[in-house]
Amino acid sequence: MTQPTPPKVIGLDLSLTCTGVAGNGWTDTIKPPTKLRGHERLQWIEDRIGDFAYRADLIAVEGPAYGTQRAGIQRGHHERAGLWWITTQRLWVNKIPFAVVDPTSVKRYATGKGNADKAAIMLAVARRFPWFDGGEDEADALILAAMAADHLGHPLADMPATHRKALDAVQWPDLLRAAGYGEPQRDPNACDTPGHPARPSGWCPICHGEPDEKTAALAALGRGTDDTRKDAA
Questions:
Q1: Which UniProt keywords apply (predicted)?
Q2: What's the CA angle centered on 117, arms 114 and 122, to 5 degrees?
Q3: Range of the domain at 170
Q4: DSSP-based three-state secondary structure for 63
Q5: E-only strand ranges, the chain
Q6: Are residues 133 and 159 in the same domain?
Q7: CA–CA distance from 92 to each of 67, 84, 177, 179 (Å)?
Q8: What kind and span of H or E run contains 182?
Q9: How far apart are CA 69 and CA 4, in angstroms?
């Protein structure tokens, strides 16, 4: 029996200097040339992210770490926020489903604790994914990819139930809506009463009764008599 093709999931740990990116069985980094700054750097990063994101079924993007006081973290905050927004905007425009995962949930999924430090996350990733040999950015991206895959029913590793509770804190996208298949379009001829059938010119046989022969003929042409318009009103 042919096994179903696993979904293409991507994890993104965005950074101006070293963005971590990961999928099923691999990790990588996106490092722009040091000479690039401002818009040029953002565009360079975005182009590489676009290559990885192409035809992804679901992407998990780490959310901003508000309130972080680590040394130097505030420097470049404005530009980092710009990178985050243009990345998610590009995914949205291209109808690529994505979820924003807050840092606490990333830590909880990896270690079972929402306040775990980087060392604990690296240790947890090495234990769950023995092939992994990357750095902190790639480790975060791999956890994000694993969360996306787990949400879709294709876990990348056997995770304890306590860790998987982190999935419940994420607002996962409606995959059909994200792909452009939104709510069914309402028939413009439908009656305003839910469940009532649609007829030309909005004539509802439940509200107004079955029309006589003349009214039915006019309705079929998209017209109506003064009487039917009064009744409909």
A1: DNA damage, DNA recombination, DNA repair, DNA-binding, Endonuclease, Hydrolase, Magnesium, Nuclease
A2: 105
A3: 9-178
A4: coil
A5: 9-13, 19-23, 26-30, 58-62, 98-101
A6: yes
A7: 26, 12, 11, 9
A8: none
A9: 45
pLDDT band at 179 (very low <50, low <70, confident <90, very high): low
pLDDT at 156: 97
Where does a domain end: 178, 203, 223?
Answer: 178
CATH number at residue 43: 3.30.420.10
Tokens for 161? 């139930």
Q: Is residue 194 domain-shared with residue 150, that is, in the same domain?
A: no
Shared domain check, 21 and 115? yes
Closest CA to 207 of 197, 219, 221: 197
Number of domains within the chain = 2
- % helix, strand, coil for the chain, step of 5: 45, 10, 45
**Torsion sign (Cα): 147, 150, 156, 159:** positive
Residue 1, domain member (yes or no): no
Give all strands (DSSP E) within 44-111, no chain letters.
58-62, 98-101
Same domain as 206, residue 166: no
Structure tokens at 12: 């993104």
Whether pLDDT at 231 is above 90? no
Give Cα 102 to chain centroid, integer Å: 13
Given a cut of 60, whether residue 25 has pLDDT beyond it is yes
DSSP annotation of 121: H
202, 222: one domain: yes
In three-state secondary structure terms, 190 is coil
Angle in degrees, 0-180, between the axes of helices 77-93 and 38-53, rounded to the nearest 10: 40
Residues 171 and 84 in one domain: yes
Strands 58-62 and 26-30: unpaired
